[in-house]
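Our collaborator T.R. sent over the components below with a one-line note: 'Predict the complex.' Nothing else. No constraints on interfaces, no templates requested, no preferences about which chain binds where. So this is a plain run: every listed entity goes in together, and whatever single assembly comes back becomes the starting point for the next discussion.
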Amino acid sequence: MKLRLTAALGLGAALMLTACAANEGQTAETTPTSAVSDGATTGAAPLKGTLNGMGASSVSVAQENWIAQFQTANPDVTVLYSPDGSGAGRDAFMGGGADFAGSDRAFTSEENVAGAFKSCAPDSTALDLPVYISPIAVVFHVDGVESLNLTPAVLASIFKGDITNWSDPLITALNPDATLPDLAITAVHRSDDSGTTDNFTTYLSNAAGEVWDAEPDGAWPYQKGEAAKGTSGVISAVKDGVGTIGYADASQAGEATKASIGVEGAFEQPTAEAAAAAVEASPIAEGRAEHDLALELDSKASGYPIVLVSYALACTDYKDDAKADLVKAYLNYIASEEGQKVAADGPGAAPLSEALRGQVLAAIDSIQ
Amino acid sequence: MTADTVTDPPGAPGALRRTSRQIGDVVFKGFSTGSGITILVLLAAVATFLVGMSIPALTADAADLPFGDFWAYVAPYAFGTVWAAALAMLFAVPLSVGIALFLTHYAPKRVRQIFGYIIDLLAAVPSVVFGLWGINVLAPLMRPLFVWLNQYLGWIPFFAGPVSGTGRTILTAAVVLAVMVLPIITAMCREVFTQTPRLHEEAALALGATRWEMIRQAVLPFGMPGIVSGCMLGLGRALGETMAVAMVLSPAAVINVHLLTSSNPNTIAANIALAFPEAYQLGVNQLIATGLVLFVITLAVNMTARWVVARRKEFSGAN
Amino acid sequence: MNPLTAGRLPRFTEPALLVVCLVVTTAALSVLNAGNPGVIIIVGALLFLLVSFALATSVEGVRHAKDRLAAHVVTGFFLIALAPLVSLAWGTVSAGLARMDVKFFTYSMRNVIGEGGGAVHAIWGTLIITGMATLISVPIGLMTAIYLVEYGARHRLASAIRFFVDVMTGIPSIVAGLFAYTLFSLFFGPGTKVGIAGAVALSVLMIPTVVRSTEEMLRLVPNELREASYALGVPKWRTIVKVVLPTSLAGIITGVVLSIARIIGETAPLLVTAGMNQSLNTNPFDSPMATLPVFVYYQYVTPGIPQDPYHARAWAGALTLILIVMLLNLVGRLISWKFAPKPGR
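Returned assembly:
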């Protein structure tokens, strides 16, 4: 028995030594110069090291695509992005646990002060760089109903729990062509604290303030309605339920039927172009440092009004210069035309407008 | 304990052998005592951490707390935790004991082996998978049953409407929890039931007892401490289960006993998982403080259960 | 009349009765227009229990009727519990088999988008972290149980340990995760996510389970065995190692395997402590480490587009986890079968 145990241990050790993944370590042999060096503007030396990112789950698909492309181009670099949530990302970034963060909201002016960030130089502040724009779709599942028009006020009443039946006159008035059944509405919201909810409730309170009397927040403010975990949880609750309606990042909505939102007469489907138009109309917040690009979303502008803007958060000045080079290279890639195209092709995000992209690139260039 | 009184068997010859024996005993006893003390230290560390992180939330002014007054915040979740676990145990305990009895005393040998094995394996299914199964398979299946219950038994407060449109209610969550703890309790019960002295069983049967009488008089009393232990393990998991509940339940911060509606009291653990990623500063302290409450609840439930079913020492061989 | 079968119900009675009860229930509920298949089975089964009990009481007497009732209830419980367990097992196997290919066990997720990719990094992570947790927990747990049963008796320390082990079983897994996370953040800087932190978190969950089950099993060892050993002049520690432990070994190993099974699927604590990594990392002291449950979680909760390959990987990961435990279980059984003294049963 002892012999057998030793043999087993030996076998385990041998396996341990051979622990490897077939898809790793091969690309390292290709010379980095021949690879597409997307953002490596810093010089001839190939980039090396590990970049730790954390934050919003809304950009996880885009990050996954960006990382794969970036790592292929720079085989000695490992970029980690753990989609734990915007708050976790901001916290880790402040505490020095992350080199960059993804967040569905920018730092507030009070948060963004010199010295608040552990991995930055002592007098450094943070940069809020909008890198990902995506519409939030309102999805629903009512048998026999293929299209649905909703105004902000009606949408707010449904999610607040004031309108409880699909045959409510307020809904039928907006949808004269649809045959809406006499069926209870189950409004599904996110059960976890999320950036999507934050953006959605911000929209409702801006566009339908007379109905939506709660403060915009990442946590759902009312105790009515159905709740589900994560974007995929909401989508499956809506798809599997009866008479359900919910909201989710449009890229994840899949085949679920999406409602058209807007003021009467101008209902829009959630598309990348419509979302881009809405962001285009939004000014950059005033009273911030030169390269701090927090956007003030205009929820009443034309285009599809419910938009999620996700930011990359970085230091203006990193403690570690090598880190700064890595971050610059990676963010440069994200904001490059190719990076934005990757995000548009994969998760279906709206590409940044040329003007905004120029500002973002200039901001990245200022990182030290 | 009788064994303790026989520390040194009489008539051990030779002083030398005696000391080497004593050294062995001392070392062995030292190691085992040390392990026990390690556990105490570990627990003290966990407790220090929990309490230390909770104090800011417990002492802060309600206005400063991101989730509002602490006790008002935690009350619905505390209720939900106990309520969901109680429902789960209501389903799981009789079923587990039944399965264990079936596997040890009723089933043919082949069935016994195969299913004993399957049940052991199911203890390893990650909670995520239970969550997925709960959302995708169980909830849609439960919905028609919920509608039926509401239609015919709606006058009982438990089954009051309006019925959830998705079936993701606390009853579904409790069923998922029950399925999760079932293998744990069953495995423990099965183990003690097979340990029942064959002589006791045969004596009962020889006296003309039916199989059920034999089980009641020989197997169950003997296995009682094991059953309680298994239940405590299961209850611990049911109270603390995070991911499955977070994924299956449609939560709200309410206290009610409706089993079929969309507004269900959430559990503390699931709420931590849902709110933690976006929490910051005092919010983190507040969530960890709810973790402390969960800890206290589990402890209280555990102690009560121990007290109610006082250990039946006479059946334990070592005492 | 055959005297041996007199006063007993004929064999075919019960199956026939069951069919009759189900038919009657179906008919009755259909008339009432409440024919839900689940409800029919439940009501039909209850009716069967009632009728068969009444019938058996009248023919065989109350004692035998009770015996039959118990057998029916126990079998019924087994069948009821089987439904979800089999549905779950079947679901995992059928959905998981799609990706149980060579690639799944040789590729990591580095630079993988959509189709392809594997979980070799997560498998190694799970093996390493669970292995380390077991290495920490089993010696501590086993020795503590020995102390409690063999040495502690009614000492104050023993009752304190017993009490606190009870307390520890109540630690919610997420809290154990937060504890380990805070501990490592304290010593190695905030946001530290490494494999060993995951192992510590899992140990906090595993130790009490090991102590509990081992203690229970040690207590089942008859005192006669211990006394016989002492009478032969065997010192106490050798008695424990040579008599008590081997006698209860099968149970102890079952307990250990069960507790490994319990922690190997833990998601929440590993999410917080060990984090996620798309690449293979076999060093538990540096960089985040992927584990199977976390892999499954992320593949399912934050899928790319299209979602199907991500979900297929998630199920394959779950199936792999079950297979690992199956293997462990087999090894455990083999060991206990090898070591355990052969009792006369």
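Summary for T.R.: The mean pLDDT of chain C is 83.
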